[in-house]
Write a structure and sequence with these properties.
With about 150 residues, the chain is mainly α. It contains 5 helices and no strands. The protein has one domain. Helix 2 runs antiparallel to helix 3 and helix 3 packs across helix 5. The radius of gyration is 17 Å and the shape is elongated. About 25% of the residues are buried.
Amino acid sequence: MSLLNNPFALIATASLTIQIVVLFLLSYGYLLKRHLRFREHGKAMFIAVVLHLSTVFTVMIPSFVLAIVPNFILPNSNGITSVVTLVMLVTGTLAVSLGVWLVVSWRFHDWEDCVKRKRIMITTMAAWLVSLSFGIVLYSILYWAALTG
């Protein structure tokens, strides 16, 4: 089965592609911060959070509730798919919660607000990278046949 013939794989691929775009936005935002362009850094982070939230609510939550829980977690909570999903869920929830909090609390104010939250930003980025990594593993587990077939 090819990727284009499987609507679930196509949606998951689009979601993963958006997450890669978010990764580039986060990297770009980091470069802006390194060049002391804090306002632009904040705008890039805002766009990354909004883009990430769009995939969380349109793809990830429905997929988790309608497919992952009934087909993988409930029948076999110790299976690799369940464990990978649960790690992704915990780290992803932490990352998105902290990301939203950082963007909302900053509200495009001065750079001092940004500097005060550096440790939280690092924690958020680390949690998001772990979640993204486990998301890539989950994508590979669920859709490898669609990609190679």
